[in-house]
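Example 431, ligand zinc ion.
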Amino acid sequence: MRIELDGIVGLGELEDAALAFGRSAPAQLVADAIESMVADLLDVVVGPFGLPLATEDQSEALFACTRCASRRGFRRRGFRPKLRKVTTVCGQVAFRSQQLECLTCGRRFAPAAELLGLTPHQRRTDQLSEMAASLAVEVAYAKASRLLAELAGPQVSARSIRRDVIAMAPDRVGPEVCEVPVLLLDGTGERAGQTKGGVALNLAIGLVARTRQGQRVKVEARLLGATLGEGWSVMGDLLAEVRPGLILVDGEEELSALAAERFPDVPVQRCLWHLSRGVYRAARYTDKSSHDLATDFGAQLETLLTNAYRSHDLNAARTAYDDLIDDAEACGARAAAAHLRGATDEVFTFLTHPAAGRLLFGDKGRPEVGTGVLERVMREMNRRTDVGVRWSIPGVRAILMVKLQRKYHHGPWAPTPAPHHPPTARFSLAP
Ligand SMILES: [Zn+2]
């Protein structure tokens, strides 16, 4: 390393100089390492420079002729006139590429790309594409491009990041675990495509553990399924191998139907938060009840659920529930009554199947069964897509599938087992 100073300089100048060095040195290091590695390999395979081995004396190479796939019998043919460039997480790597001639078929080729696992026209490494995608699932493509250059150095255009995200995105995501205590199902609309209502993002989340850390309760969630612009039956197929202990639904009829059809033996619990909100909305906006009356229905529902949870008295709970329906009807709140009646079979599952999905039940004195985890995921997804533009369906599907994969460690973000061997490449400053 060389240090050049024009007299006494400030810390700011040193920071700038060190950063500039830090931005360019790693890529140079990688390029030098590649050149020296390939040179050593070719010495072994075709013999040292100026002392070529006869074909019969050559050993089998780690690479093959790009035309006839021969692994033996090569001659050095100097270097490719142009540097091979590939943008990596540590900047643009540009290296000289040794060229060989195949003595079997006469083809000239450069073996470095194949040795490095690069495809013929690959301009970015997968690691860089994944790093750029990690930013793009949080912020707009143009901003991701800017942040990547500012914070990490590599220059990748917004258009290239978008192309990579679309290339790496699966059409849908399926489960990586099958045994889940609680299965949550819900959907949300995304502003994409031509239809006014947009397109549906459907999610299935499994809750696998619940831990308490001081005052906070942490729920461990796994992504079991994600589809965009496809019906719930596609989700049903994705979840074919999943065995849930309890299914939580928000009241959408299609979801309850799916649960009944695909998981006939699994108890279904209605999300109590959605139920309470649904009753308020039906009373307030459909039945045109006063705010006080609509709030009162909600409060009564809350009370009877808390009592049911504390007393475990199913008959009393059902009677109180039927009374609330009658009460709503008597007050002219027909839609609220219908909403409650529609949930009858799913509201007290926590009493009829107390062991199912046990870990969802809290200790705040009231049943804590809700699809809150899913609501938060939906909001997170919507934050990325509600950017004031109308997305194309493939565009919104790609960004959401990659965002979900990354959030839940699927696909390229799946945890890799810790290597058993020490790293095979190490760089350090010479003493
Ligand atoms: Zn050949």
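Summary: The chain has 15 helices and ten strands.
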